[in-house]
Amino acid sequence: MIRIAILDDYNHVALKMADWSRLQNTCRIDVIDRPLGVPGEAAKVLAPYDVICHLRERTAMPRELIEQLPNLKMMAITGHEHRTMDMEAVRERGIVVSSSAPRPGGAQGTPELTFALMLAAIRHVAFEDRRMREGHWQSTIGACLNGRTLGIVGLGKIGQRVARIAQAFGMHVIAWSPNLTRERAAGADVEKVSKQELFSRADLVTLHMVLSDRTRGLIGAEDLACMKADACIVNTSRGPLIEEQALRDVLENERIACAALDVYWSEPLAPDHWLRSRPNVVITPHIGYVVEESFRAFYGDTVENIEAWLGGKPIRVVSA
Predict the structure, then answer these.
(1) Of the residues 56, 82, 201, 286, which is catalytic?
(2) Tens digits of per-residue pLDDT, 195-239?
(3) One domain for residues 28 and 163
(4) Looking at 56, 161, 238, 304, which residue is catalytic?
(5) Which of 74, 137, 151, 303 is in the most buried spot, having the most CB atoms within 10 Å?
């Protein structure tokens, strides 16, 4: 029997999102519902498996781990790439890696969550919910998005989607990124500004950049110091885009009003992490892409990819 491991199924939904019965005659399928320490714990748990199914980049695949998986022959990844996978090590081993298919409109979950977080932060939704359950009534006063300025760091596909939603709310949108051109900004009906101007003018700042060596720590103390005292920063992209200590300083000293975060410097977020006790933050557990539409597509493609590999004709191959 071919042994298949489905990684990081925290929600216990993977087997419900696709027809895995198509593989059950020739495969044994195991679901792993907790994060695995890499490389040590992961190497011990995953050593017996021929196929590993990833959900985005929840489990890293460095060379140190790949070299300790003697039976590994195929990996199915969701998304176009797995940035924490050592592709050179994969190629050296001849491991087939197949990805899920790109789909138009497939990145809607994150932009929508961005606005859920914005509204939760400036309308004090979580706080008022807790107070209501305690028997209280109307403890805060909120603010509207309409008429406010949104600063978008990164005007790619997701950033442009965020801009359109913001404009529907009646917001003025400004943007900056290292390579943003005036033509691209104008095409999205967005004002291109400098980095300093974005942080000083925006009422809300939202990040939509890919994490790389170049963008790690892109937002530092100098940027956050430019923000208005009543401003909010939102991050649904990647935690390390912001310098953690710099963000902690402005929140603990209340030099900005609040932050709304879906991503962190290390995930899952530690139980004793300082963010969990901050009253001026809204936090969610990296759920931007965690929507039924995406998961059905991810796992449907995963089953197809494994079937094709078992039949000797791999599809959607990233590396082989």
Answers:
(1) 286
(2) 999 999 999 999 999 999 999 999 999 999 999 999 999 999 999
(3) no
(4) 238
(5) 151
Distances (CA, A) of 16 to 292, 296, 297: 10, 9, 12
296 is catalytic: no
Asked whether the CA dihedral 72, 33, 296, 236 is positive or negative, the reply is negative
82 catalytic? Reply is no
Which pLDDT tens digit goes with each residue over 91-126?
999 999 999 987 655 579 999 999 999 999 999 999
Structural domain harbouring 315: 2-104+291-319
Same domain, 164 and 276: yes
What is the phi-psi region of residue 113: left when phi exceeds 0, alpha when psi lies from -120 to 50, beta otherwise? alpha
Q: Same domain for 91 and 144?
A: no
207 and 301 both lie in a single domain:
no
Q: Reply yes or no on whether 267 is catalytic.
A: yes
Cβ atoms of residues 219 and 243 within 8 Å:
yes
Q: Are residues 171 and 100 in the same domain?
A: no
Q: What is the pLDDT of residue 236?
A: 97
* Catalytic option among 112, 128, 267, 307: 267
- Tally of structural domains, the chain: 2
